[in-house]
Specification:
By secondary structure, the protein is an alpha/beta fold. The chain has two domains: about 5-195, 2-enoyl-CoA Hydratase, Chain A, domain 1 (Alpha-Beta Complex), CATH 3.90.226; about 200-245, Orthogonal Bundle (Lyase 2-enoyl-coa Hydratase, Chain  A, domain 2), CATH 1.10.12.10. Helix content is about 50%, strand content about 15%. The chain is built from twelve helices and ten strands. It has helices at about 25-40, 65, 70-75, 80-90, 105-110, 140-145, 150-160, 165-170, 180-195, 200-210, 215-230, 235-245, and strands spanning about 5-10, 10-15, 50, 55-60, 95-100, 100-105, 115-120, 125, 160-165, 175. The protein has a six-stranded mixed sheet with strand order 1-2-3-5-7-10, sandwiched between helices. α1 links the parallel β2 (about 10-15) and β3 (about 50). α1 (about 25-40) packs parallel to α4 (about 80-90), α6 runs antiparallel to α7 and α10 (about 200-210) packs antiparallel against α11. It is globular, with a radius of gyration of 19 Å.
């Protein structure tokens, strides 16, 4: 079983499970991951997903054995591009809990998540250049938008790895915790988010991600539209009423 699923209230944990190859992202694992994310996106009983690996690795990269014999034509025909798009379209908060290696495709997968809790053992990098290629699943784009051109360029063209504290300074992760606390910290964050009104959380995620890809004027217009739409929800009425009545709100995602 390449993917293990655990449910904890309104939070689902997806654990990548190819420990013998440090969770290298092959077709089987990516298919399992995206299939489950698609299903969880439509499950009203799930509000947040935590994605993790194991102590030695979140994911140490793509499975090179699947890539080595490809041509420019066959590489375009691989379903990998569709898998990455399905991850990008996941509408609920996706939190990465990272221990050990997050390299190449593993780092790209981490950056495709919305928030990242890293253990102090975590190591990050885009080492593709060392085997004659470059990042191909968003590594050059998301990394540059997150850390800026100069830092992204150095990571991509040297293939160097960085430690968790440097990743924190660059803004790649939300926080660094002792390795043994990674999953509990990620679950604590997930439960906090899961307690919020789910429609407001979804719209807020959509607006934040749009800020990465659009001019300010476009983003502001989209933000205002989503803000206005939330006034049609029962959760908005409940949230504001509860605030005025000085009681806890009870959100239902409607």
């Amino acid at each position: 079983m390449v993917l293990i699923e655990e449910r904890q209230g309104l939070v689902t944990v997806l654990r990548m499970n190819r420990p013998d190859v440090l969770n290298a992202l092959n077709g089987e694992l990516m298919e399992a991951l995206t299939t489950r994310l698609t299903a969880l996106d439509g499950d009203p009983e799930v509000r947040v997903v935590v994605l993790t690996g194991h102590d030695r690795a979140f994911a140490a990269g793509a499975d090179i054995a699947e890539l080595v014999g490809n041509t420019p034509v066959t590489i375009q025909e691989l379903p990998m591009l569709a898998y990455w798009e399905r991850i990008r379209q996941f509408s609920k908060p996706l939190i990465a809990a990272v221990s050990g290696w997050a390299l190449g495709g593993g780092m790209e997968l981490m950056m495709a998540c919305d928030m990242v809790i890293a253990g102090d053992t975590a190591r990050f990098g885009q080492p593709e250049v060392k085997i004659g290629i470059m990042p191909g699943a968003g590594g050059t784009q998301r990394l540059t938008k997150t850390v800026g051109k100069a830092r992204a360029m150095e990571l991509v063209v040297t293939g160097k790895t960085i430690k968790a504290d440097e990743a924190l300074q660059m803004g790649l992760v939300n926080r660094v915790v002792p390795q043994e606390l990674v999953e509990s910290a990620a679950l604590e964050l997930a439960q906090t988010v899961a307690a919020m009104p789910p429609l407001a959380v979804r719209f807020a995620k959509e607006a934040v991600l749009m800020a990465l890809d659009t001019p300010l004027e476009v983003g502001l217009s989209h933000e205002r539209r989503l803000f206005s739409l939330l006034f049609s929800t029962a959760d908005q009425k409940e949230g504001m009423t509860a605030f005025l009545e000085k009681r806890p709100a009870n959100f239902h995602g409607r």
